[in-house]
Amino acid sequence: MNISSLKFFQNLRATNRQFAVIGLGRFGRAVCLTLHGMGYEVMGIDSNESRVAQVLTDQIAAHAVQLDSTQPSALVEAGIPDFDTVIVAIGNYVQESIITTLNVKEAGVANVVAKASSEIHGKLLVRVGADHVVFPEHEMGCELARSLTRPGILDRFELDPDHSIVEVVVPQSFDGKTIMEVDLRNHYGLTLMAISREDAKEENHNKFTINPSPVTRLKGGSLMVVIGDNSGIDKLPM
Questions:
Q1: In angstroms, how far is the first alpha carbon of the chain from the final one?
Q2: Would you call 211 helix, strand, or coil by DSSP?
Q3: Which of 122, 126, 193, 210 has the fewest Cβ atoms within 10 angstroms?
């Protein structure tokens, strides 16, 4: 999910500014690149010297360190306890992933996000203290399926398995109707949070009007941000 493209959502993010990413494979590099590009301070960690060097060369993290994350003392020496959030991006080496997650949590990190390669792996990560477990391959597959079947949904932030916040193209069937007339709450169980301002476009970006007036008229092809049940979102006309 590429929620970073939604400027509106950036204000909803936590105030965490410092992140450490342990494991600099494809997933870990992608996390580093995205967080660094958003202006956060990121430190990359891997046991592979060439991966560490490549992250520094590509300038996708402020710092990068080579160490064995299964050794608690090495993590403490690297300053891991000082980070707001640590992402354990080790997916293919289950034992190393679990031990690293345990070590990071025992070091006192408040928010630990861990990548899992299977359901059992995910359960074990939760058992050793992971605050949030992600399944990138599964999530990417779901996102691909949604993008193919619901092209009007441009971006999605999942609150839980049943509820999401989405940026969606205003359907042509809503064109010219007021927010009150469309009545998303009663017809779809959704709440309209924001609509794009066509009169205030910046280059390649949209500005949003938050909590717009019920008498505001919608324009087909513009953007709106809604929150609610996934079943309601799937019922929106495209």
A1: 20
A2: coil
A3: 210
